[in-house]
Amino acid sequence: MQEVVLPLELGRATGSAPSRRLRLQGKVPATVYGLGKEAVTASVDYRELRGVLSTVAGLNVVLSLDIGGQHEMALVKEMQRNPLRGDVTHVDFLRVEPDSDVAVEVPIHLTGEAVAVIEINGIVERTLNTLRVLAKPRSIPNELVLDVSELTVGDTLTVADVDLPPGVTALVDESAPVVSGIITRSALEAAAEAEAEEAAEDDADGEEASEDDAGDSD
Fold it and tell me: Which residues on adjacent β-strands are paired with residue 157?
């Protein structure tokens, strides 16, 4: 994964009022910390931040923060958003080293079609949408893949079934469920109705046969 350069502007004033003024100017208050270095307060252009986070890597994009001409590798650690508008109101960047593992959440992408589940009107129920993994910054995958083609009703695929690239280690127990094949209540009710109808038809056929036998004996 290549680093994406993101310029930061130093020297922002802290506090609610200065932060509001920054946002009115199209900037987002930011903090950079980690690796035992002093935390730095800064601001970032909202459009540039949105642009780097719009790549396929999403929040796990590896950044080269341009801080006053000095470049530091970092990841987005946390973003605060306005609860109504969804705008980013503050962002924290975590300094990282290229050769040291970091813990991140990576989306799980399901591939294939669970035909055995779908055929009986079952559903594929997800327990995990993301997986917390350990990897070096440039080895962080954009997504992890899990094939559900062989999933059946009553079956569960776990973390152990997720395809992990080399150098990536799951930080979740491998027995933790990711997806399960389950039958819905409506499907169970439909199956029960079908069985009842079939049983009723069998009874009706049996009664007709008995009447026919009785007629023959007369």
Answer: 179
CB 81 within 8 A of CB 96: no
CB 70 within 8 A of CB 42: no
First-to-last alpha carbon distance for the chain, in angstroms, is 89
* CA-to-CA separations, 94 to 34, 46, 61, 91, in angstroms, rounded: 6, 18, 12, 10
Q: Along the chain (218 residues), what's the average pLDDT of each consecutive run of 10 residues?
A: 86 80 91 93 93 90 92 94 87 95 96 92 93 96 96 95 95 97 73 63 55 54
**What local confidence, expressed as pLDDT, does residue 124 receive?**
93
Q: Which residues pair with 199 in a beta bridge?
A: none
The C-alpha atoms of residue 26 and residue 214 are separated, in whole angstroms, by 92
Predicted TM-score (pTM) of the model is 0.78
In sequence order, what are the residues at sequence separation of 6 or more whose Cβ sits closer than 8 angstroms to the Cβ of residue 69? none
- Kindly state the tokens that stand for 36: 């035992």
**Could you give the CA distance from residue 152 to residue 25 in angstroms, rounded to a whole number?**
54
